[in-house]
Design goal:
Layout: E1 4-10, H1 14-29, E2 32-34, E3 43-48, H2 53-73, E4 78-83, E5 99-100, E6 119-122, E7 124-125, H3 136-140, E8 144-145, H4 148-160, E9 165-169, E10 185-188, E11 191-194, H5 198-206, E12 212-216, H6 225-233, E13 240-242, H7 250-256, H8 262-275, E14 280-287, H9 294-307, E15 311-316, H10 324-328, H11 335-350, H12 356-359
Parallel strand pairs: 1-2, 1-3, 3-4, 4-5, 6-9, 9-12, 13-14, 14-15
Antiparallel strand pairs: 7-8, 10-11
């Protein structure tokens, strides 16, 4: 039959990268080898992302490019589609795909074929939070946590294989275990929650002989005092904490269904820095969300100055089909204004240019 070659194209977040490591393992176990160029293979697996429209459009563009090449070259290339896009209505727009694999069919029991750098260890999949701008709950479904024993086995194997850094990943990593047998409930930032098992898991990992442990992505309302205490006790837990803000204006946060106020967010960062020596923050922010006037934007800039983020992943709002915000709110901030606000925050946070005269 000859050599069976495969090309895996991954779009999107670190969760998709981790999924692709398991997809690769599945095909390698079946005797496939990796092709450096997709034009020189028999099979292409596309791991898709739909968090932003631009990511979705890149998937369409790549599939169109493949279909044109197959038509002009006459070459037989099978295309497999997986990832977040296959669970949404957008799947109906795609032609020229031979097979579709749902994300929940990618077995976490497969031993991943990891790349260089940190070992990515998924601890949960899906999300229950339903932020109004986010398509993830529809794309990945309800939050499902892995058994702690299974996670620890994967972490230990990564350490035995020489990895120096572990990254625990989930759409809402610090609510881990809320869907497992854990009935204790509490109220956090106005939200009724099931007590997270994440502090217990993080401590178990931190006790292992590993140089660095990170986790993404956490949410403010699940960042408990117990979690802060665990981080403070173990020096191998990363002091750069990713804590999405999204907006610093209370009205916009309410429209986003984020469940906290700007004051509560700032107070949380202060509790963290008071308890954890050397703690710093990275964040996610959306500019130009529907209803964000100049005052609302200035409130976001104010929170950024108060917290002093190390880095911010900034996004200009665009409506996503199937989300609450796309249905309820008009996209009323002009693109030019979104770009201006993006530049201001980029200068303020990422380039450390105060720019106070521009946004005061």
């Amino acid at each position: 039959m000859g050599v069976k070659s495969i090309f895996i194209k991954t779009f999107g977040c670190v969760q998709n990268v981790a999924d692709s490591e398991r997809i690769k393992a599945y095909y390698w176990n079946g005797g496939w080898t990796e092709a450096e160029d997709w034009r020189c293979c028999q099979l292409i697996v596309i791991n898709t992302c739909v968090v932003r429209e631009s990511a979705e459009n890149r998937v369409y563009g790549f599939i169109n490019e493949i279909n044109k090449y197959k038509k002009t070259s006459g070459k037989e290339i099978k295309v497999v589609l997986t990832g977040c896009l296959v669970n949404t209505k957008s799947r109906q727009r795609i032609t020229g795909v031979d097979q579709v694999i749902q994300t929940d069919k990618i077995s976490l029991k497969l031993k991943p074929l990891r790349g260089a750098g940190a070992a990515l260890v998924p601890i949960s999949n899906g999300c229950n939070n339903h932020c109004s701008y986010c398509i993830v709950p529809k794309a990945r479904g309800q939050e499902r946590s892995r058994k702690m024993e299974e996670i620890m086995e994967e972490v230990c194997e990564a350490i035995r294989n020489g990895f120096k850094e572990i990254v625990l990943i989930g759409q809402n990593v610090n609510s881990y275990g809320a869907d497992l047998d854990n009935s204790e409930s509490l109220v956090s930032m106005g939200k009724k929650r099931v007590k997270s098992m994440f502090p217990k898991l993080l401590e178990k990992v931190a006790k292992l002989p590993i140089e660095k442990i990170s986790f993404v992505s956490s949410n403010p309302w699940d960042f408990s005092d117990e979690l802060i205490e665990v981080i403070s006790r173990y020096k191998n837990i990363n002091r750069l904490i990713h804590l999405p803000l999204q907006s610093g204006d209370d009205d916009i946060l309410k429209r986003m269904n984020r469940g906290y106020t700007a004051k509560e967010y700032v107070e949380l960062t202060r509790r963290i820095t008071k308890k954890i020596d050397g703690a710093k923050f990275s964040t996610d922010i959306i500019v130009g969300f529907p209803g964000e006037d100049e005052e609302a934007f200035l409130n976001t800039a104010k929170v950024c100055e108060q917290v002093g983020f190390e880095v911010a992943y900034l996004n200009k709002y665009s409506p996503r089909r199937g989300t609450v915000s796309a249905k309820l709110y008009r996209d009323d901030v002009p693109q030019a204004e979104k770009r201006r606000r993006w530049r201001i925050l980029d200068n303020l946070i990422n380039k450390k240019v105060t720019g106070k005269s521009e946004h005061r």
